[in-house]
């Protein structure tokens, strides 16, 4: 697996990854009622200089992680406070269970936050093993986790 730093050219792929996060990787599932609002924040408002990585298996994109920087007034589900970026992550279904998400998380510097829906138990376990800790914040049903260092 190769990892490339995200650039503006990756925005379309990040849009796909954002879709995968919304449907928990089930491409046939209905998107959530807040999908368009979330798309605006996680995709349209994303800036390549905020950071991110795309995982590549040869010429096949396997997944990615990207960082968004919210404010107290405008933020995503995993926002803790201004100055701490929130990460979004998704792995293509064919690469699940192969360590891609673990490797992507290792590339992101702390402190960083994220959110996880309770239905996504596998991801929740991965985040805890990767050093993320519960913050006590629950936003629209998503638990907010923070990796301090």
Helix/strand structural class: alpha+beta
Number of domains: 1
Numbering strands along the chain, what is their spatial order in the largest sheet?
A: 1-2-3-4
Fraction in helix: 25-40%
Number of strands: 7
Mean of pLDDT: 95
Please give the largest β-sheet. Answer: 4 strands, antiparallel
Content of β-strand: 25-35%
Low-confidence stretches: none
GO molecular function: acyltransferase activity, transferring groups other than amino-acyl groups
Protein name: Acetyltransferase (GNAT) family protein
Pfam families: Acetyltransf_1
InterPro entries: Acyl_CoA_acyltransferase (IPR016181), GNAT_dom (IPR000182)
Can you give a write-up of this model?
- This protein is α+β, with helices and mostly antiparallel strands.
- The protein has a single domain, classed as Aminopeptidase (3-Layer(aba) Sandwich), CATH 3.40.630.
- It is 26% helix and 29% strand.
- The strands form two sheets. A four-stranded antiparallel sheet has the order 1-2-3-4, with helices on both faces. A three-stranded antiparallel sheet has the order 5-7-6, covered by helices on one side.
- 34% of the residues are buried.
- The model has no long low-confidence stretch (mean pLDDT 95).
Brief write-up:
The chain has 4 helices and 7 strands; from the N terminus they run βααβββαβαββ. With 149 residues, it is of the alpha+beta class.
